[in-house]
Specification:
Strand content: 25-35%
Number of strands: 16
CATH architecture of the largest domain: 4-Layer Sandwich
Number of domains: 2
Order of helices and strands: HEEEEEHEHHHEEEHHEEEEEEHHHE
Radius of gyration: 22 Å
Amino acid sequence: MDYGWIKIFEDVTPSPNIDAVLSASERIRLADGEMLIEADQENHHFYILISGEMGVRLTREDTQPGMPIMPGEPIGEMSIIDGRKTSAYVYSVGKSEVLAIREQDFWRHLATHPRVMRNLTRLITHRLRLTGQRIIRGIEQQLQYEHLKKELAAARDIQMGLLPQRVPLFPHHGQVDVQAYLLPAKEVGGDLYDAFPISDGHILVAVGDVSGKGMAAALFMMRTLTLLRAQGCTTTPWAELMPALNRLLCEGNASDMFVTLAIAILSVHDGRLTLFNAGHPPPLLSRQGGAFEVITGTKGALLGISPTLLYQGIEINISRGDRLVMYSDGVTEAENADRAMFDLERTRAALDQHPADGAMDGLVAALARAVTEFSDGVEQSDDITILALRYLGQGTHASSS
């Protein structure tokens, strides 16, 4: 089929793989009002609207017109990207026809095309902007605080739903214990974390912090998260991951947004750990139950500022029982009533007090609790994110290279 008019294939060179995927995909015809997707359901298809019109609603009972989906636009992309259940209702407005692409075909044959993922990211960002505009129009039209509160809560639910929340985070990699925690300062925020396997023997964890707060930061956070997952699964060698991510974030960044990001890639079989850092607070490492120390040598420039920047990573070996902690500056810069900051030393002290053989969920909770107690009721001014990893496999110590 001629697919040049489909949004995600704009400026994409024709490919036999794409032709094969589209030809093998099922066509579904829907009547007026018929549901294609219902909320809180498993979804394993990436849909494209071929003809007609569809609408999106967050609740089944909503009587207001839903956000429109026009021919050539994708459907169901959020649940495919984050692997979670659907969060909205998608229904046909009049008669419509959609193309149902299997999830495995999407990741294997479409997600490997940088231009396809760039187009998809732009479409998702555009939809989030439309959601923000709908919220603003609702405020202007209704001037009802409760209405705004509910809309922002829904936006927060969508944003938080994008973060991995499996327990454990790596169910198929018993060599690691990984836990994460994120508390936004506002209804929606700019912090992010991620944790996903990039091969049978390697996993990736990351913590980031987008400039600013509110809806703009949330949109850029979503863009960063989507690109990180696409590039993390397809970019080799890993030294090219941060430059590739930076170039893509610089594209179309008219608002001059930027993000700090720390990435750790671990070989679960031998404990080799590769670290990259783009302007983010440096990770902390505890070897064999010892004190947490700052890992130096990974500082790099912010992502989204200049497309030509380079990033230098380091490699270290970690052993069974070693612990790695990544965090956002919402931890170290949390303030109390005297305007004193929680700072790095208090962060390390709180981590050192946790039992060396304790589980990572307890370590994360202990640090979050220490920050809360220190602030003592002072309003949170920045998002707080913590990710902790314990290596349970075999390995030997080695110095940084």
